[in-house]
Backbone:
């Protein structure tokens, strides 16, 4: 694993978000369209469908990378990324979430 300098880490805009809405993406079996409140509403595409039912996600407090370049996936624009952990085999995945309540938009450092 390659080390990065602290200044590179500081470039990441990591914020607390609350998942407000989860929708299927037409023709996609692995991704959801997710609306997250990070102090403003943000739409993300997340490859978590095989690990979570939509109902499990709504209301969950998560960590979002907010300053990634927008990317269009399956015709849907994504403005960020959820933090998640997976096994090397990619057969298990869990979203990084918070153990205590904190306001949406709070910075993660």
Residues:
């Amino acid at each position: 694993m390659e080390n990065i300098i602290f200044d590179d880490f500081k470039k990441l805009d990591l914020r607390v978000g609350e998942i407000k809405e989860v929708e299927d993406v037409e023709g996609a079996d692995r991704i959801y369209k997710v609306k997250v409140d990070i102090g403003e509403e943000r739409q993300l595409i997340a490859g978590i469908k095989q690990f979570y039912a939509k109902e499990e996600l709504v209301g969950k407090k998560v960590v979002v990378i907010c300053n990634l370049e927008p990317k269009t996936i399956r015709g849907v624009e994504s403005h960020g990324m959820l933090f998640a952990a997976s096994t090397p085999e990619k057969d298990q995945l869990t979203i990084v979430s918070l153990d205590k309540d904190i306001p949406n938009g709070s910075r993660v450092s």
Summary: The CA atoms of residues 86 and 92 lie 5 Å apart. Helices lie at 6-10, 54-57. The chain has a mean pLDDT of 95. DSSP finds two helices and nine strands in the chain.
